[in-house]
Automatic annotation (TrEMBL):
Protein name as annotated: Retrovirus-related Pol polyprotein from transposon TNT 1-94
Native source organism of the sequence: Trifolium medium
Amino acid sequence: RYLKFTLNHGLMLKKPIHLQLQAYSDADWGGNIDDKTSTSAFIIYLGGNPISWLSKRQKTVARSSTEAEYRSVANTAAEIMWLLNLLSELGLKSQLPSLFCDNIGTTYLCANPVFHSRMKHIALDYHFVRQLVQMGKLRVAHISTRDQLADILTKPLSRARFSLLRDKIGVTNGDPILRGHNR
């Protein structure tokens, strides 16, 4: 029923004012009712336009919400690095990318130079992200759950929350534009 009434919805891309990658990374800890795996998701913007997004079930069960979120942050960071390389190949220079996460523990781990033994089972992800932050190639910042745009890709939401996030990520109704009513 949703698809029937949103056939003309799509992304309206705007001319970017600046070339900066901004990413929103999220995970739902143990959200799969069958095997308790988590879903990772991200949305990456370039100059305010969404250019890359993903929603994917994690392969292993996370022992904490911080672990599930950290795995998602690591996947998002890898995509950001790929996009930075692509921009470089195209002769474009991006400002320092920002990655927003709503889990405060994950945000602290990204900047913490001390390796915690309880994180050794995700050590590669941990060192990958932390190294990018320390080298000044990535900025990881906390964002409130209310402002977490990737939330729309991790779990079912109320109609009101879904509509709000759908509008915030840049999905618009194309009917007025297709009829020549674009302002």
